[in-house]
């Protein structure tokens, strides 16, 4: 069973234009995928913009290095301080210190007992 659709000349022109736009987008996406080149500006501008929430994206920065992790592990091993206090002194979240404590992060750093 087939369905018949009746279009005006203007609708046919608009439909042909949209089909052409879609074909160009598909062709440019295949070129980008094959070459690894950045997307052209036309494709980037077509993306919907995120809502302004006051939160900006920023690069992840590393607050800890190996020397600081050794100090954290030493302080944890001493048992005199809580993980929360250590986290506050290094400017990191308590979960970061606990992940170090339980070997989820920085497990390759060994501290002699």
Question: How does this structure look, described?
Answer:
The chain folds into 2 domains: 9-45; 62-113. The chain contains 5 helices and no strands. It has helices at 9-35, 41-45, 66-78, 83-90, 94-101. It starts with 8 loop residues before the first helix and ends in a 12-residue tail after the last helix.
How far is it from the N-terminal to the C-terminal residue, by CA? 80 Å
- The string of secondary-structure elements, in order, is HHHHH
What is the beta-strand fraction? under 5%
Spatial shape: rod-shaped
Kindly give the count of domains: 2
* Main sheet record: none
Query: Helical percent range?
Result: 40-55%
Low-confidence stretches: none
Number of strands: 0
Q: Would you tell me the overall average pLDDT?
A: 80
List the total number of helices.
Answer: 5
Blueprint of the fold:
Layout lengths: L8 H27 L5 H5 L20 H13 L4 H8 L3 H8 L12
Helix pairs in contact: 4-5
Q: Summary?
A:
It is built from five helices and no strands.
What keyword list fits this structure?
113 residues; mainly alpha; 2 domains; rod-shaped
